[in-house]
Specification:
Elements lengths: L4 E18 L5 E20 L4 E5 L13 H13 L5 E6 L10 H16 L6 H9 L5 H6 L3 E5 L3 E4 L7 E6 L6 H6 L18 H8 L7 H7 L2 H11 L4 E4 L6 E5 L2 H14 L4 E6 L8
Parallel strand pairs: 3-4
Antiparallel strand pairs: 1-2, 2-4, 2-5, 5-6, 7-9, 7-10, 8-9
Length: about 290
């Protein structure tokens, strides 16, 4: 039997991101409310007579197919951790822009790890996978969780958020890549207050109101480095989003809408005006979607 598993590698959205300090080793400390979307890359895996790694999709060109790719490193890390030697075929459908602030590479790595745990029927508890994931990148543990959460520390201290509302989300990238290191280097302040406490009850409007009291501390330096981000934010505002912000270190921006249909209409408007941009309408995943 040629068993195959398909795993979504969802886009990671930093709905709010406060930079609260920096460790002696140079890693920045963050406090972030994170959601994941139903749109993302897709990883297909199956047993094979030899290792095979291929990439398809609109953003596959130029990505490395060796250890420079986090998906390949995730396979090697899983083999080393669990003592497995089976050869595997991995196909990565790259639908998310590269270096765009939505955790694409980290989410790909997490999808490979989850897929291998399923294929190999591993007794891989979430804590063990998270410990392995942090060795690949600070965002991998939260991408393994792939549900609404608060991330602190360097991103590895994760607290799930229950009762999270359904959001219509439009993602927009103006076709530019921004260096995460350059954005952090341009920060004017690295010791900012943490996020305020979340409301005890979350619906769309209480979440939007709470988000208005928060920031993405990386947005201002990213906009200074790449002014095209301003155009993406402006397009989302014109399309009627309740909250508009940049995700992560950019350059992808998001707008929140009360329903998936409103998000689809807004995305269609933006796409007509800016056909060369990356534009996607989606919704966030819930706890039940993370498997």
């Amino acid at each position: 039997m040629n068993e195959q598993t398909v795993v979504l590698a969802p886009a990671k959205i930093n709905l709010a991101l406060h930079v609260t300090g920096r460790r002696a080793d140079g890693y920045h400390l963050i406090d972030s409310l994170v959601a994941f979307t139903r749109f993302g890359d897709r990883v297909t895996m199956s047993p094979s007579v030899a290792d095979r790694f291929e990439m398809t999709g609109p953003y596959a060109a130029g990505l490395p197919a060796d250890d420079g790719n986090l998906a390949v490193r995730a396979l090697k890390a899983m083999r080393a951790e669990f003592g497995r030697t089976e050869t595997i075929s991995i196909s990565l459908e790259k639908n998310l822009p590269v270096a765009s602030g939505v955790g694409g590479g980290s989410s790909d790595a997490a999808a490979v790890m989850r897929g291998l745990a399923r294929l190999w029927r591993l007794p891989a508890d979430p804590e063990r996978l998270a410990r392995l994931g942090i060795g690949l990148g600070a965002d991998v543990p939260m991408c393994l969780a792939a549900r609404p959460l608060l991330a602190r520390g360097i991103g590895d201290e994760i607290t799930p958020v229950d009762g999270f509302p359904s959001l219509g989300i439009v993602l927009v990238n103006p076709g530019v890549a921004v260096s995460t290191a350059a954005v952090f280097a341009a920060l004017s302040s690295r010791d900012n207050p943490p996020l305020p406490p979340l409301p005890s009850h979350l619906d769309f409007h209480t979440l939007c109101n709470w988000l208005e009291t928060t920031r993405n501390d990386l947005e201002a330096p990213a906009r200074a480095l790449e002014p095209a981000i301003n155009g993406a934010l402006s397009a989302l505002r014109k399309a009627g989003a309740h909250v508009v912000r940049m995700s992560g270190s950019g350059a992808t921006c998001f707008g929140l809408f009360e329903s998936g249909n409103l998000a689809k209409r807004a995305a269609s408007e933006i796409r007509k005006r800016k056909p060369a941009w990356f534009v996607a309408a989606t919704r966030n995943t819930s706890q039940d979607d993370a498997a």
